[in-house]
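Here comes a specimen:
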Amino acid sequence: MKEIAHHRTPVNKIYRSCYECYASIRIYPAATHPDEITTLLEQESTLLEVVGQEITNSRGRTRKVKYSIWELCTEGFLKSQDLREHIDWLLDKMEPKSTELQSLQEVPDLIMCIYCIWKGKRGHGGPVLWPEQMRRMGELNIECSFDVYFFSED
């Protein structure tokens, strides 16, 4: 990510107000099988669930998948506490597939978004996006949502 002199908040892998963050591109493919997304984007997912599939969690509880999902998440790939780096990582992978993303966006009932988790330390500050990330998401016609949590260091 190129630093721009007029930006107020420089990129920092050790973002002081952040405990942990990651981002994912999520595609809820409606009637399309998530494997077709993998093939179309030529990208393995980090999470793939198919409607009707039964999944047992680490506590032994089983649930039936209600909605299919294809997800590519930065968790485990990036160590940065700066959400901009996570979003840029996803966009770097998705921009070469902009035509394929556009064709997916034309599928009825398909939902696509960038989903961000930001776990903050108690205090002042929060995630920052530069116009560059917003422009790139806009060019791909992908919305961005945030789940923000705050923790004390006690």
About this structure: The radius of gyration is 17 Å.
